[in-house]
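TA notes, week 10

Several of you asked for a full example with nothing omitted. So below is the full record: structure tokens for the whole chain, then the designed sequence directly under it. When grading your own attempts, check the secondary structure regions first.
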């Protein structure tokens, strides 16, 4: 089993198109995308030899929604396509590949770093994010993503591959 869960954005220097630097762009691509590619490169031969395996990648709902930072959105969107490619190219070896798109999560990286970066109280950031979640008006937690990943890695998901799974409290169901 391979679980790719990595991502940086603002802390890596991400910015809108008109403000992004080459250094920030390259750093975020290296962390968010290149790490996934090389982890798979070195894991796939072992999985192919044993004729089984599960790869679970963690992307972001930023891939499917309006998001201000160019590199994070681009890398998380690319993860979806790479996961689909992994799934179809490795199905004959019994290897499954799926990707999870977490929505708004109450984690230190998501909330505390934003509060620090924008010099605002954590409670304000959390309240704004909670208000955007249809399911009980509360962000999810790392455990919500972990449970989805555990399912996708398990034998119970033995016939599931190439899936993009939003874990977002229903936010992706909204239109407009």
């Amino acid at each position: 089993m391979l679980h790719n869960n990595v991502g940086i954005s603002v802390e890596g220097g991400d910015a809108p198109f008109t403000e992004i630097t080459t250094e920030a762009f390259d750093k975020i691509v290296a962390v968010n995308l290149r790490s996934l590619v090389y982890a798979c490169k070195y894991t796939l031969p072992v999985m192919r030899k044993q004729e089984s395996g599960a790869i679970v990648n963690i992307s972001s709902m930023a891939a499917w929604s309006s998001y201000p930072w160019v590199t994070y959105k681009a890398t998380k969107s690319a993860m979806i396509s790479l996961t689909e490619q992994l799934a179809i190219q490795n199905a004959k070896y019994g290897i499954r590949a799926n990707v999870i798109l977490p929505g708004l999560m109450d984690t230190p990286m998501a909330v505390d770093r934003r509060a620090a970066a924008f010099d605002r109280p954590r409670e304000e950031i959390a309240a704004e994010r909670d208000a955007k979640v249809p399911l009980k008006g509360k962000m999810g937690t790392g455990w919500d993503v972990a449970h989805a990943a555990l399912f996708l890695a398990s034998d119970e998901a033995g016939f599931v591959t190439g899936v993009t799974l939003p874990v977002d409290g229903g936010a992706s169901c909204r239109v407009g």
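The mean pLDDT is 96. Use that as a sanity check on your answer.
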